[in-house]
């Protein structure tokens, strides 16, 4: 089972930019290597990657660069869902061709109030057009951002029609009741449920889930991966509490800018502060406040290089 | 003033697809000609055009095809705002190079709750990168879909910094109080305010506005354009009422599918029913209901060819 390589923890890898807001490919390669070395997989082009702020061409090139640099495609789950069907097909096909073990797929998210019929048709059209038995789709449920939810009944229909291809879901709703419903109903059928935050990692693992795909896996990878491995151990609850404390340090700030600021402060260097509009870097007072909160936890990111 | 050619009424031209969901370029050219012949400008790639369901490459090719077919670029305001900065820059640059009188620009709409600072930076970056004195940007305020509003204070900042380039706005909020605020505050400075629906056309013209960019201009172009011209006449209020009656016939249905259905029924042919996912065509009962409502108004679309 190819997709088994994706179980555990993945990071929606933050994307480094140059001062002129071009993607800094070499820096991304180094960051991905640092994550993989800490047992964290690569959900590049996620929400926290500013994935939708990158063009399809940029994303194709980055997949090539990451694979070309020797990073394991078996540990990659690039985000490929776009508003336009041809874009989703193009990037998904490319990811499969390069050996990515799975793709994380947003629904088309421009139109709001769309029907499950329309969303089903969209996913079906992508699957048919890509037409590759190696395709593994992880649905991406993040209604507070996409505003287009992936309902349980839509999952049911997709699983019934494409049981080999619809491989799982990332539930970023923050509503663990919803995660539990998916764990109960779909996980037993081999549909891998990932929590969208390590806040629910222990609960997800105890519920039979696959792991988590979390923003803060960018900054706290080793500890989060450890809990995904050791969740049956007596120390699991204490490990979860320690993860929560780190995540809590980031909560008062816009997450993406805060992750980049932490990387900048912990050895990555100032260049990491760049974000593409419409995001903005942390303001000076936010930077100090984050620093204070991280210092209080003696937080660091060992091994990080600029 | 190049942009004066855009005043009056524009249609977010619905996009025809083939049975395999490719863009039917020839049919779009015919439809655009039919609209231009009825004094309606071409806001191609708008919300009702399924503009965000098309790739940047498809949209570049369509601009080339429309201009190549002899349609007037001086009457074109293609939608060019995307989530990713490089996409917005690419398509905007192409539109300006082909002579389009203006572009209709959504803010980057994936992230929600973004700041005016971030949106200002986004528009500024596009303007600086395109770097063309002929660029005229019409901002696109459609918060119920984009979920990212264009606030009055953002307009103020953009106008102050780029007075020649920030040319106007389409207000699709449906909140005429907001349109009035823009008419009072910005229109006197040469910032052209368009209502997002002909429902507010007469009121917008009386308030000094530029016209409207409306879904139903796809199906009722001549009458809407007539009111934009004759709004000072004694018949204006009656004309507005007649426009409202036609628009009202479409209101119970999903707008884009209903527009395409009306075109299909009124001489355009069945092929017009195709929409790209996540949209779906009208169901059979909706088709009949729309037909009944249009018949009650003796509605037709003279001159429409398949």
Characterize the structure shown.
2 copies of one chain form a homodimer. By secondary structure, the first copy, chain A, is α/β, with parallel strands linked by helices. Helix content of chain A is 44%, strand content 9%. The first copy, chain A, is built from 12 helices and 7 strands. A 7-stranded parallel beta sheet of chain A has the order 2-1-7-6-5-4-3. In chain A, β3, α4 and β4 (137-141) form a beta-alpha-beta unit. The longest helix of chain A has 15 residues, at 116-130. The radius of gyration of chain A is 18 Å and the shape is globular. The two termini of chain A are 36 Å apart. The model of chain A has no long low-confidence stretch (mean pLDDT 97). The A-B interface holds A 21, 47, 52-58, 83-87, 90, 107-112, 114-115, 117-119, 121-122, 125, 144-148, 276-280 and B 21, 47, 52-58, 83-87, 90, 107-112, 114-115, 117-119, 121-122, 125, 144-148, 276-280.
